[in-house]
Amino acid sequence: GSTIKGDLSIRGFAKIDGCINGNLEVTGNLIIGKDAKINGNVSAKSITVGGIIKGNVIAPESVHLLSSCVVLGDVQTKRIQADENVVFHGHCISISNSDEYEKAVSKWNNISSVSSSTFRI
How are beta strands 29-32 and 3-5 bridged, if at all? Predict the structure, then answer.
């Protein structure tokens, strides 16, 4: 039942079961519990998602989407596993080769930054 407003940075392992309205950065592995709700970008070494994330997910090692999860955002990882009934709306980069992964992420970041820019004529 806890709610955090603002960005959160955690060293090591973390498990989230509450609500976060802000970005979450974890240096180790991260578990998002089935009752958790995060409105912000999430990054960790590896992430298991059981709850709701409205934001991008970056986990260079792995992402596991459980059947109870909803992810509304892009996913970047070297390895992804999705259970049945997952709700995922976004783009996904999942390449196991480190060099190819870095190239794909760099290319996607460039495309995203250009497409999100507002041009006025």
Answer: unpaired
What does pTM read for this prediction?
Answer: 0.87
Q: What is the pLDDT of residues 73-100, one digit of tens each?
A: 999 999 999 999 999 999 998 888 888 8
Amino acid identity, position 105: V
DSSP H or E run through 76: strand 75-77
Spell out the long-range contacts of 5-12 with Cβ–Cβ below 8 A and sequence spacing 24 or more.
7/40
Per DSSP bridges, beta strands 80-82 and 19-21 are unpaired
Token pair 């390895």 is at which residue?
A: 79
What DSSP string describes 11-36?
SS-EEE-SEEES-EEESSEEEE-TT-
